[in-house]
Amino acid sequence: MKNLKEDYFNPFFSHIYVEKSVRNHARTQNILAKFPSAQIIEIGHYKDVFCRSRQNIRLQHCAQKLILAARQGTLLYEGAPVCQRFGNEHFYYVSCAMNCIFDCAYCYLKGMYPSANIVVFVNLEDIFAEVERVLENHPLYLCVSYDTDLLALEPLIGFVQEWCAFAAKHAQLTIEIRTKCANKAFVQSIVPMPNVIYAYTISPQAVIDAFEHHTASLSDRLFCAAALMRAGCPVRLCFDPMIYLPGWKTHYSEMMNQVYRSIAVDQLLDVSIGTFRISQDYLKNMRKQAKDSAVIWFPFQKEDGYCHYPAPLMEEMESFLTAQIAEKIDREKIFRWNV
User: Fold this and answer.
1) 3-class SS letters over 168-180
2) Distances in Å between the alpha carbon of 7 and those of 103, 118, 210, 211?
């Protein structure tokens, strides 16, 4: 969790905005009880605060506020073209929270949302009902940690535990929980389920230090991934996004050596590999906010509304890592974005 004691910003979640419609919701009450000193402000709709114009995302990340709301309208979304599908025909994601306590310099959320404050939708029961409706027609592969790091928020909102309990009742549902955190308390108390996949974003420590602010170290991520594997959980390692930086081959080689020392890679569910890519519109918004960020001001190549590294560099980076991983894991377990 962030530590802001040495600056003059307000404490983490010092102000909590609550939609009137969910003020008495049980999940709202449980969350508010964890912040007894927070100033509670009732609002009509989360967008009244979240979608205000001319917000400064960089400053807001120094003192994020929490917004508790009800999710309305569309509850499930089809996966975006830039996402790995892992061979799943019915690939969807759900947004039960928006924005992240982490502050990754390259995160698309900075370009997608007008605010860095965090929205949590407390009406999970409505999302569960929609998932059950879809399951009546076909199996479902669902990313539940798509617009946030849900496992990082687990001590505050407990949604991962609720999703796991829900998945236990629906064999046709597979959920993926993507994370960059090291929630060791959660890992140590886990009950493994075959249809709950824990997916760890794995980056060189140099990338973590430079761009993945406030996230867990590489060693801590690998510790948690290994612990989950020993407990019998399906674990995926996501070498995605690969980020270019000087000496990238050395950094990624050192990363892989650390992975091999920490994890029985032949027991992984699978791995994903992909270089950084992002919506052209999101990147434009991010550049307005961060005029000095090397990672987002790279001279990207534009293609079909998306930006990515120039094709030769993209191919070199992904092929380099694929070749290393293929020495330790079966090719059918390697999912590469750029193929």
Assistant:
1) HCCCCEEEEEEEC
2) 17, 21, 21, 21
1 lies in a domain? no
Mean pLDDT within 130-144: 96
Tokens of 84: 């790995």
List phi, psi (to 5°) of 172.
Answer: -85, 0
pLDDT given at position 1: 44
| Residue 10 in domain | no
User: Nearest-CA neighbor of 19 among 68, 73, 72?
Assistant: 68
In this prediction, residues 117-137 reach a mean pLDDT of 97
Supply 94's token pair: 């759900």
How far apart, in whole angstroms, are the C-alpha atoms of residue 263 and residue 268? 9
Question: Residue 7's pLDDT band (boundaries 50, 70, 90)?
Answer: low
Q: 154 lies in which domain range?
A: 15-336
| Span 11-22, pLDDT tens digits | 789 999 999 999
Please count the structural domains in the chain.
Answer: 1
Closest to 242 measured CA to CA, from 312, 323, 337: 337
- pLDDT at residue 101 tops 60: yes
Can you tell me whether residue 198 is helix, strand or coil? Answer: strand
Q: What is the CATH number of the domain that holds 85?
A: 3.80.30.30
Residue 261 belongs to a domain: yes
Residue 8 in domain: no
Tell me the sheet residues that pair with 238: 201, 272
pLDDT digits (tens, 9 = 90+) for 143-200: 999 899 999 999 999 999 999 999 999 999 999 999 999 999 999 999 999 999 999 9
Side-chain half-sphere CA neighbours of 116 within 13 A: 22
- The chain-wide mean pLDDT, for the chain, equals 94
Return the structure tokens found at 176. 């993926």
Q: Which sign does the torsion angle of CA 77, 282, 97, 271 carry?
A: positive
Q: How many CA atoms lie within 13 A of 17 on its CB side?
A: 18
Cβ proximity of 279 and 111 under 8 Å: yes
